[in-house]
């Protein structure tokens, strides 16, 4: 036994060596590919929703300005078209909702799933 | 590729840049998360969530720190949130920490444990039983070789606390090792 040696030093050296070791378990080899597909999916979705929001915003904004221009000058309107819309506002709202939903399905959902199918075929 | 170029290319949606970012930092994230969360399956899912958050928020990176510490901070905070959701205790000073029966590693004899690889496995199990902040700081300092400043930027801990956790963590590992293998030191002394 070496009288100058200290078992604590050897223990500390082993602990230090162990602390610097990489773990046995590693990420799977497919981790990056799987993750990239998810990232692509999220980015595509976000981009499509953003485009849809912009287009809807432009159309809705334009319509609102038009309606305000028609209504504001003549508070008590006699325009038969506007009166019809005002009387059947529930039907009008339903139709607008349907149009928006169709627009959303076409501009966002359909494009999203088409892009995803293309990506899946490629990979 | 420097951080600014990488970020610009990731924001431009270049797939090779996304891939490069993941390959460059996946080990840092994995080592941290695995050490903090301990369950490999959960750690893998959490790593994916962390990277998705990184890609979502990359536009918010202002370059005030290194990209690696920004990513490390996201990994750290998401891991802590995960542990809180699972009801795991976070803030336990090491001197108050006592391993719960059933979680403490079991060793049969000093001779069996003295095989180097067995000793290392035992040390890893002891590290896994330490409180989470100790495990995190130990991993970042020894395995990832980060400086105190970088560890501070990731965890929000001051330098003094980091040094304290490192010292106390190592002390706790030594003490637990000697407790688990009572004949260890005499056997180590005899073999020298």
Chain-wise SSE layout:
The complex is a heterodimer of chains A (123) and B (192).
Chain A: H1 7-19, H2 31-71, H3 80-87, H4 89-122
Chain B: H1 3-11, H2 15-37, H3 40-57, H4 67-85, H5 110-114, H6 116-129, H7 132-143, H8 148-155, H9 159-180, H10 184-190
Helix pairs in contact in B: 1-2, 2-3, 2-4, 2-7, 3-4, 4-8, 6-9, 7-9
Sequence stretches where pLDDT stays below 50 over 5 or more residues of chain A: none
Outline of chain A, from the CA principal axes? elongated
- Termini separation of chain A: 63 Å
Topology order of chain B in helix (H) and strand (E) letters: HHHHHHHHHH
Number of helices of chain B: 10
Q: Which protein chains are joined by the largest interface, and how many residues does each one contribute?
A: A-B, 32 and 41 residues
Helix share, percent of chain A: over 70%
Descriptive account of the structure:
The complex is a heterodimer of chains A (123) and B (192). By secondary structure, chain A is mainly alpha-helical. Chain A has one domain (30-122). Chain A has helices at residues 7-19, 31-71, 80-87, 89-122. The longest helix of chain A is centred in the middle third of the chain and has 41 residues, at 31-71. The mean pLDDT of chain A is 82. With 192 residues, chain B is mostly helical. In chain B, 71% of the residues lie in helices and 0% in strands. Chain B has helices at residues 3-11, 15-37, 40-57, 67-85, 110-114, 116-129, 132-143, 148-155, 159-180, 184-190. The termini of chain B are far apart.
What is the gist of this entry?
Chain A is mainly α. Chain A has helices at residues 7-19, 31-71, 80-87, 89-122. Chain A has one domain (30-122).
List keywords for this structure.
heterodimer; A: 123 residues; mainly alpha; 4 helices; 78% helix; elongated; B: 192 residues; Rna Polymerase Sigma Factor, Chain: A; Arc Repressor Mutant, subunit A; 71% helix
């Amino acid at each position: 036994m070496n009288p100058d040696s200290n078992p604590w030093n050897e223990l500390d050296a082993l602990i230090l060596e162990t602390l610097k070791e990489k773990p046995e378990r590693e990420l799977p080899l497919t981790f990056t590919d799987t993750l990239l597909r998810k990232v692509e999916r999220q980015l595509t979705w976000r981009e499509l929703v953003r485009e849809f929001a912009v287009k809807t915003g432009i159309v809705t904004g334009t319509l609102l300005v038009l309606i305000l221009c028609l209504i504001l000058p003549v508070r008590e309107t006699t325009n038969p078209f506007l009166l019809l819309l005002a009387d059947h506002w529930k039907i009008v709202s339903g139709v607008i909702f349907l149009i928006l939903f169709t627009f959303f399905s076409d501009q966002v959902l359909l494009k999203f799933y088409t892009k995803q199918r293309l990506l899946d075929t490629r990979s | 590729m420097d951080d600014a170029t990488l970020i610009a290319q990731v924001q431009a949606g270049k797939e090779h840049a996304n891939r490069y970012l993941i390959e460059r930092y996946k080990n840092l994230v994995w080592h941290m998360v695995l050490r903090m969360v301990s369950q490999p399956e959960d750690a893998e899912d959490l790593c994916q969530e962390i990277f998705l958050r990184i890609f979502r928020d990359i536009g918010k990176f202002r370059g005030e720190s290194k990209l690696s510490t920004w990513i490390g901070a996201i990994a750290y905070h998401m891991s802590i949130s995960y542990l809180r959701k699972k009801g795991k205790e976070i803030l336990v000073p090491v001197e108050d920490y006592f391993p719960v029966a059933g979680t403490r590693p079991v060793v049969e004899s000093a001779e069996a444990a003295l095989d180097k690889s067995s000793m290392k496995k035992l040390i890893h199990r002891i590290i896994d039983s330490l409180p989470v902040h100790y495990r995190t700081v130990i991993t970042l300092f020894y395995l990832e070789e980060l400086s105190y400043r970088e560890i501070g930027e990731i965890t929000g801990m001051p330098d003094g606390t980091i040094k304290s956790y490192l010292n106390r963590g190592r002390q706790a590992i030594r003490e637990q090792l000697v407790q688990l293998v009572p004949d260890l030191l005499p056997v180590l002394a005899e073999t020298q």
